[in-house]
Amino acid sequence: MKDKIKVIISDDQKEVKIPTGTRMLVRRCCNAVLKNEKFEGSAEISVRFVNNDEIHRLNKEFRNVDSATDVLSFPLGENGVYDVNQETGAKMLGDIVISVERAYEQSKEYGHSFQREMAFLTVHSMLHLLGYDHVNGGLEAVHMREKEELVLTQIGLPRSNSYTD
What we know:
Blueprint: E1 5-11, H1 22-36, E2 43-50, H2 52-63, E3 71-75, E4 83-84, E5 91-99, H3 100-110, H4 114-129, H5 138-154
Parallel strand pairs: 1-2, 2-5
Antiparallel strand pairs: 3-5, 4-5
Helix pairs in contact: 1-4, 1-5, 3-4, 4-5
């Protein structure tokens, strides 16, 4: 049986109309990260689109950070060990919460497309679900950024000359 990747997407915001193709792009990003990381077995990922108020609330509740952010990752696994959905046998990787409002603002700020920003946030968060971290900076952060750019280039959204970090 072929491994299946299930990406459950819910749009819980009204501020930004989600462009056609965005859900498919998010699914492609999830699949590309798992392929690059040589993830084995079936997997489930939940992705929620929210507004700035909701991500602010979640950031405060779960990270004790009293501000909005662009994306939050809630990994369900640790050290490559995941809970398994008993019905499907899929490993449950966790939840990704994206502030679509913030993604839209950042796409304008960075001078690239909304699609690239959504793809970047999805890829970034997927790497967190797989155990990557960048909080300490240094080599770990550089390594994570390289993996992000590799996936974005593979799906046809490479960093443009106008993109600044």
